[in-house]
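We include this case.
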Amino acid sequence: TDHLMGVTNMAEQGLQFQTCISAEGELTLSLVNVDFPDPKEDEVLVRVDAAPINPSDLGLLFGPADITAATYSEVDGRPSVTAMVPEAMRRHIGARVGHAMPAGNEGAGVVIQAGSSDAAQQLMGKTVAVLGGAMYSQYRVLKVSQCLLMNEGVSAKQGASCFVNPLTALGMVETMRQEGHTALLHTAAASNLGQMLVKICLKDGVELVNVVRKQEHVDLLKGIGAAHALNSSDPGFMGDLVSALTATDATLGFDATGGGTLAGQILTAMEVAQNAKMGEFSRYGSTTYKQVYIYGGLDRSPTTLNRAFGMAWGLGGWLLTPFLQKIGQAGADALRQRVADEITTTFASHYTCEISLAEMLTQAHLEGYAKQATGEKYLVTPNA
């Protein structure tokens, strides 16, 4: 009877990807066989079928280790990778020293065991998406509240990227509204997240300026309906940027690169666009507030500002989790439901490579997903 109700008395065993940094600064990436306990009353056991590798996962996976000088080997018949954290960076690893940590922010799979509560039982046999950490595992025990039920016919692969990119894109538009801006700018805009943002803005009637680094990415974004897609490598980029910001009146930007001069260029172009609308000179610059949020670190060099944008501006950091906490449970649930309803359209993700847990630790694949190249997204299939 217990088994028919979705409750068994036998824990599942399966592989889990773990990352650990020793006190000597050695990073070890490995696969470990672990026990996944029976779910409690308000929990479920999910067989993880798909989990994406997002840029936000790489910080935990690699820490500050020099992954370009990694050593690849086998331990107990399973692949293993080691790399050293440069001595100057070891003070940044702090509390994680000596702790083997699972990784993988999000993923999706099928509920194969359920606790005794009605909410848990209703998920038995269903495909759910999860933002719960430790998703590079064959199984995962989770609270019902961490699971987002997929609509009928939606597969785990389709639902695997339900949270980080979709909620970040929605969060950008919501932040714009809450902070009194009327249009947006986004960099590294040809990514999966960037394409979602284009679709959201088209659907919601929000003007969007997209900044990319290659002509093929300009073509890609224009192909899905983007009105403003600019190539920062073009000689006339700053002029094009001012024109797009003048046309859209965008005074809020989200920058995925983080380093270099791009954030400063955006603020400068916003200032030029706003100054032209003032109609009178002010030595303090435009009184219109301009804001750029850095939400990624594709460029690890220092952030350089030329301060050619008056005094009404801000540069800050933006992260998804604090944003969701700020808008509260009801607000977050509304965004989650929109993602579930549009996961095969607005929020569809595209993957260039599907790999197993073991393949995560092979040189060819690890170097591939470590690059964080735009348009090259990896999907891990732990039970394939």
In short: The radius of gyration is 23 Å. Residues 1-9 have pLDDT under 50 and may be disordered.
